[in-house]
């Protein structure tokens, strides 16, 4: 009975906090913006990963931090059995009055990546620092093994992974940019 009472109080408190602290951009009047592009599987996954990370950082800064137009930004990629990647830019909780401007600003941000070499090196340094404190869970290890098997058809060593990471150059990222052009992307905007 005491445990049920505590659980009941905890549940009520969560509902109360949830209703008070809910972000207004997550309601049903917000839009969702999704754009995807296919990238050939011949490009090394670390190049796609670096591009995804840098894009995520820049788009988040432009759309969320500076303008406050979106609630959440997620830039990710999925390796489809080594044949191609699907790079996805997802903006959630988009203010309906600026959804078309969001699309334009993403195009401008992608177009400006060639001017981001300093940010590229800063991002790499941050990732390197994170590697020093890497402490995976068993699920993380299993996910890494599956990813390696899908991507490389074998499990990579940490030394191989580190060497591949260090081998990625800013020029390789620049070579990828034409594939991210507006004409190559599929975009979906959901409006309330």
SSE topology sketch:
Elements (H helix, E strand, L loop, with lengths): L1 H20 L9 E10 L4 H22 L5 E9 L3 E11 L4 H13 L5 H16 L5 H15 L5 H10 L2 H7 L8 E6 L2
Antiparallel strand pairs: 1-3, 1-4, 2-3
Helix pairs in contact: 2-3
Which features characterize this protein?
single chain; 192 residues; alpha+beta; four-stranded antiparallel β-sheet; 54% helix
Q: Which overall shape is indicated by the principal axes computed on the Cα atoms? A: globular
For the secondary structure, the number of strands is 4
Adjacency order of strands in the biggest sheet = 2-3-1-4
Strand content: 15-25%
Compute the separation of the termini in Å. 45 Å
Mean pLDDT across residues: 83
The poorly predicted ranges are 13-27
Structure explained in plain terms:
The protein is of the alpha+beta class and 192 residues long. Helix content is 54%, strand content 19%. The protein is built from seven helices and four strands; from the N terminus they run αβαββαααααβ. Strands 2-3-1-4 form a four-stranded antiparallel β-sheet. Strand 2 and strand 3 form a beta hairpin. Helix 2 packs across helix 3. The longest helix has 22 residues. The chain is globular. The protein starts with a helix and ends with a strand. About 8% of the residues have low confidence.
How would you briefly describe this protein structure?
By secondary structure, this protein is α+β, with helices and mostly antiparallel strands. It has seven helices and four strands, in the order αβαββαααααβ.
């Amino acid at each position: 009975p005491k445990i049920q009472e505590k659980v009941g109080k905890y549940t009520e408190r969560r509902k109360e906090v949830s209703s008070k602290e809910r972000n207004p951009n997550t309601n049903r009047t917000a839009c969702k913006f999704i754009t995807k592009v296919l990238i050939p599987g011949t490009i090394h996954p670390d190049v796609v990963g670096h591009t995804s990370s840098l894009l995520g950082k820049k788009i988040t800064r432009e759309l969320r931090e500076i303008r406050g137009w979106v609630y959440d930004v997620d830039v990710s990629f999925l390796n489809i059995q080594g044949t191609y990647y699907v790079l996805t830019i997802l903006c959630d909780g988009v203010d309906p009055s600026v959804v078309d401007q969001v699309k334009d600003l993403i195009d401008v941000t992608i177009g400006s990546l060639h001017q981001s070499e300093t940010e590229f090196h800063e991002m790499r340094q941050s990732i390197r620092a994170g590697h020093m404190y890497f402490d995976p869970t068993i699920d993380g290890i299993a996910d890494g093994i599956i990813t390696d098997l899908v991507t490389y058809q074998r499990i990579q060593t940490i030394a191989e992974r580190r060497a591949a990471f260090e081998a990625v150059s800013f020029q390789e990222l620049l070579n990828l940019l034409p594939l991210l052009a507006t004409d190559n992307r599929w975009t979906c905007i959901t409006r309330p």
